[in-house]
Structures are given as structure tokens and as C-alpha cells.
Write a structure and sequence with these properties.
heterodimer; A: mainly alpha; 3 helical TM bundles of succinate and fumarate reductases; 66% helix; B: alpha+beta; Ubiquitin-like (UB roll); Fumarate Reductase Iron-sulfur Protein, Chain B, domain 2; 2 domains; five-stranded mixed sheet; two-stranded antiparallel sheet; 13% strand; elongated; binds protoporphyrin IX containing FE; binds FE2/S2 (inorganic) cluster
Chain lengths: 239, 255
């Protein structure tokens, strides 16, 4: 005899088990959407930091203000805490972004013989891993140079932090390195900002055009702001 | 005589692969007298008739309705899923879209989750398993209610209809550099999340469908938007934002 047909109201599927997330230590049992969420949230935090960082750094245009600001910052007992937090956010962003990037590569092992796009993908959106890795290298060198004063771009004897910044940024290699680094951040964010809104679910047809516009503006603004400091150092000839 | 009367002369580079284990390779064919009024699939029929007459194996390709509603057809033409026309399935693409003498490179949809079965045919059962994981309503809602008995806001009805237009062809996966299935999955999640019938299983649905999508080996969206542009039904990436939102809300409720 054939089995009785299941009644429409009692489908067995409603209680079917939910598939387990991707195996492997690097995925940490997280779904793709969760990992993307963490990349977006940490990206948002990093963008927030960049605005604060730029605002503080622009004080270098006002004589004396930057060193005063730096002294106040270093006097705060909260600084080490903030630094550890920022470092953790950065590590989460980079680690999960790279884990996703690797899974994405594995999902498309064979490319098409004819490479074509429909004109929607942008240079920035297709090169997030490359601009991201450029920023990673930049940040490591940047911390060695500014925080630990590694003599990478000349080794001037200085009395204040602002002198170290302006004199090493006036070094041709220093200027070039910083210009390239902040441009990479700008390109990363020209896609990253609207992308994070989309990933977090804060997007719709109504907002899409405005958010992509905002994204480019944020990328351009941050890059231009930091570049201004490099140009200022070059104009001042390092003094 | 114009080329229109004689038909088109085409040079085809077609991916030939005997089976899932075969490495596969491109083969060149020349086809003459192709009517510009023919669909792309009719052009392939013409090629296959020629190949059969010559004693060669015909090119395997998927098709069913040939009117753009079933989602069976699809291959990559010169790097673009379903060819270059906007909002068009391969079966609805006409040969008049190509110039005389065109060189067309035909490849199967590429993705780890869509293994090639033969020539231009890929196994898209991963999509079926994503649907089986939660893309349905299994609570009994009785027989069909009278029209407008259950009110649905106009805006939601429109959005649900737009999402439901997805025919599950896989062009989104094919055109994505990460082979992400998020446009497909999000269209199904959105379609049901926006309607009253979908509410009971709303949270479980999104969690289960995303988990199945990951288990099948699709990549994650990096928002390059190529899927939306390639989709023959022009499904919006707004659905992906909604799916992410639904997923997060479902996780919060489970905490
Ligand atoms: C100042 C430092 C950085 C900032 C402000 C930043 C910001 C962002 C933002 C806002 C996003 C979009 C998030 C999303 O949509 O999911 C993003 C994505 C990403 N970031 Fe970063 N990022 C930074 C550094 C890095 C570094 C060092 C890497 C190194 C590997 C990296 C790699 C990536 C990748 C691969 C993505 C995903 C791309 C995509 O989904 O299209 N980022 N980043
Ligand atoms: S054959 Fe049905 S959509 Fe093309």
C-alpha cells in the first residue's frame, strides 16, 4: 500500500533542521550574513574614527594647537583603552573581510573566457580586497613611523610631535607614501560607505542614489582632508 | 541582397564538456543564414540540426517555456548571463540584437554551487534546496480567502510582486564575481516576508534559507550590483538589504 499523503497543514518541513554554517575554524561557525554584518559594523566604527582622527590632525594647520591636543590626549587614562578597542575593531574588520574574500574566491573558481560587466561594478567595488590590503600595509608602517617614530622618512631631530609630522611628511618618500595611503582609504570608502548601509539593511530604492553619492563624498572628503596635511608639510618645507 | 534577407553569419565559440568529470574546452562553429527574427535558443536549435546532420553531438542546453517565465534557460554570451540585452532571458533574446558576422562565446553559468553537467547545462538544484529550507508557507491558512478580506498595503503588495517575479534562473549567481546567491534568496525571503501568509514562519525562514545558501557554497555579496543588472526580471538589490534586516531581526529575537 502507498503511504498516506501528508495533510496540507502538517508539512514535515516546518521542523526540518536548519543547515549548519560553513565548517572551518576561520568561519567561526558564523553565517555569511553575520560575517558581512561584522565587517560593516567594524567598517562603520573605523569611518567614525577616521573623521575624529582627521579633525585632530587638521589642528596642525594652527600653530601650537596640535601639540596641545596631543598632550591632552596622552594625559587621558582612557587612551590605552581606546587604542585597544580600535585595534580590536580593526582586527575584526580585516580578519572577517579576508575570510569572506577567500570563500568568495572559492565560490567562483573558474572565470569566464570573455570578461564583461554590465557597467554596475566599479573599480572601487571590484578592488576592495586590494585597497583594503594596501590600507593594512599603510596602517602598519604608519604606526611604526608616527607612534614609534621609526626613521623611515629621514630622522630629523625634533622637539615636538608636530615638527616630526611636518618634517617627515616633507620628505619626498614620506609625502608619496602618505598620499598613496590616504588615497587607498578614499577609494576603499567610495564603495565601502554605501556598501555598509546596504549590508546592515539600511538601504532601499529610495535611498540608494543618495547613499552611493554620500559614499563617494565621504571617500573624497577624507582623502582630501589628509592630503591637505601632506601638501601643507611640503609647502612649509618641513619647518 | 541584404544580410537581413540572407540571414546572419555567425562565428560561435561554444563550451563543450561531455560530463561533470570532463575538463571541457571551446569548439568553434560557423553558422549561416540565421534569421534575425529567431530567438537565441532557435539559433542553437539550428546549430544542433547542423551538427546532427554532420554526425556530431548536439550542444546540450536547458530550456522549457521559451517565453521568459520558467527560468530554465540561460548561458553566458560574451561574458554576460543571458546576453547583453537588459531584462531579457536567453529564450527572449533575438538574433537581431547581434550584428552580421558577430563572434559569440557561449559558456555555462560558472559557480562552485552550479556544477556543469554537460556543455551549457549546469546543476541548479542548490536553488531548489534553498527553497526547500524555508521558501514556502506550510501553516494551514484554509481555503482561498475572498479578495481583499486580508488587507495588504499597496506598497507591500507591489514589492512582494516585484520580488516574486524571480524565476530562479541563476543569472545573479552567474554574473556575480563571488557567485553569491543573495539576490535569489533575498527575493524569496522578501516575497514572503511582505505578505500576511508569510508571517508565522518569517524568522525561521530567513535563518534557514541563509544557512542553506551558505552550505551550498555560494559566496557572500560585496554589493557590486552586477546581479541586479543581469537579472532578466530586474529584481532589485533592495531585497538583499531587506534580507539582511530580516536576518538580523530574526537573530535578535532568538537571543
Ligand atoms: C581605515 C581603515 C578601514 C576602513 C575605514 C574600512 C572601511 C570599510 C567599510 C565601510 C566597508 C564596507 C563594509 C560592508 O559593506 O560590509 C569595508 C569593507 C571591506 N574592507 Fe575595509 N576598511 C578599512 C581597512 C581595511 C583593511 C586594512 C582591509 C584589509 C584587508 C579591508 C578590507 C575590506 C574588505 C575585503 C571589505 C569587503 C568588501 C566588500 O564587501 O565589498 N578594509 N571596509
Ligand atoms: S526557457 Fe523558460 S525562461 Fe527561457
Amino acid at each position: 500500500m502507498s503511504e498516506p499523503a501528508p495533510s496540507p497543514g502538517s508539512s514535515a518541513r516546518i521542523s526540518a533542521p536548519i543547515a549548519t554554517p560553513r565548517a572551518g575554524f576561520l568561519h567561526a561557525g558564523l553565517s555569511s550574513v553575520t560575517k558581512k554584518y561584522a565587517v560593516a559594523m567594524s567598517g562603520l566604527a573605523l569611518v567614525g574614527f577616521l573623521f575624529a582622527h582627521l579633525a585632530g590632525n587638521l589642528l596642525i594647520l594652527i600653530p601650537g594647537a596640535f601639540d596641545q591636543y596631543a598632550a591632552a590626549l596622552h594625559a587621558s587614562p582612557l587612551l590605552p583603552l581606546a587604542e585597544i578597542g580600535l585595534f580590536a575593531v580593526f582586527v575584526v574588520h580585516v580578519a572577517l573581510a579576508l575570510v569572506c574574500a577567500r570563500a568568495n574566491r572559492d565560490a567562483k573558481p573558474q572565470k569566464y573566457a570573455v570578461a564583461a560587466t554590465r557597467g554596475k561594478a566599479t573599480l572601487a567595488s571590484r578592488t576592495m580586497v586590494i585597497t583594503g590590503c594596501t590600507v593594512l600595509v599603510f596602517v602598519i608602517v604608519h604606526i611604526a613611523h608616527m607612534k614609534f617614530r621609526a626613521p623611515l622618512f629621514g630622522n630629523p631631530t625634533v622637539e615636538t610631535g608636530s615638527q616630526w609630522v611636518l618634517r617627515t611628511l616633507a620628505h619626498p618618500l614620506g609625502a608619496l607614501f602618505y598620499a598613496a595611503g590616504v588615497c587607498a582609504v578614499g577609494v576603499h570608502l567610495s564603495h565601502g560607505v554605501w556598501s555598509l548601509f546596504q549590508t546592515l539593511g539600511w538601504n532601499s530604492k529610495r535611498w540608494h542614489a543618495r547613499l552611493t553619492c554620500l559614499s563617494r563624498a565621504v571617500g573624497a572628503l577624507l582623502a582630501a582632508g589628509f592630503l591637505l596635511i601632506v601638501v601643507y608639510a611640503l609647502l612649509r618645507g618641513g619647518r | 541582397m541584404s544580410s537581413k534577407e540572407q540571414g546572419l553569419h555567425l562565428v560561435l565559440e561554444v563550451w563543450r564538456q561531455k560530463g561533470p568529470e570532463d575538463a571541457g574546452r571551446f569548439e568553434s562553429y560557423v553558422l549561416d543564414s540565421v534569421s534575425p527574427d529567431n530567438s537565441f535558443l532557435e539559433m542553437l536549435d539550428q546549430l544542433n540540426e547542423k551538427l546532427v546532420k554532420e554526425g556530431q553531438e548536439p550542444v546540450a542546453f536547458d530550456h522549457d517555456c521559451r517565453e521568459g517565465i520558467c527560468g530554465a534557460c540561460g548561458c553566458v554570451v560574451n561574458g554576460q548571463a543571458h546576453g547583453h540585452e537588459k531584462g531579457t532571458t536567453l529564450c527572449q533574446l533575438h538574433m537581431r540584437s547581434f550584428p552580421n558576422g558577430a563572434k559569440l562565446v557561449l559558456e555555462p553559468f560558472r559557480a562552485t554551487a552550479f556544477p556543469v553537467l554537460r556543455d551549457l547545462v549546469v546543476d541548479r538544484s542548490a536553488f531548489d534546496r534553498i527553497i526547500q529550507a524555508g521558501g514556502f508557507v506550510s501553516v494551514s491558512t484554509g481555503s482561498a480567502p475572498d479578495a481583499n478580506l486580508v488587507p495588504v498595503a499597496k506598497d507591500n503588495a507591489e514589492k512582494a510582486m516585484d520580488a516574486a517575479a524571480c524565476i530562479g534562473c541563476g543569472a545573479c549567481v552567474a554574473s556575480c564575481k563571488n557567485s553569491s546567491a543573495m539576490l535569489f534568496t533575498s527575493a524569496k525571503v522578501s516575497h514572503l516576508a511582505l505578505l500576511p501568509q508569510g508571517q508565522v514562519e518569517r524568522e525561521r525562514r530567513v535563518a534557514a534559507m541563509v544557512a542553506q545558501m551558505d552550505a551550498e557554497g555560494f559566496g557572500a555579496c560585496t554589493n557590486t550590483q552586477e546581479c541586479e543588472a543581469a537579472c532578466p526580471k530586474e529584481i532589485s538589490i533592495e531585497n538583499i538589504a531587506r534580507m539582511n534586516r530580516e536576518f538580523f531581526k530574526a537573530k535578535l529575537k532568538r537571543l
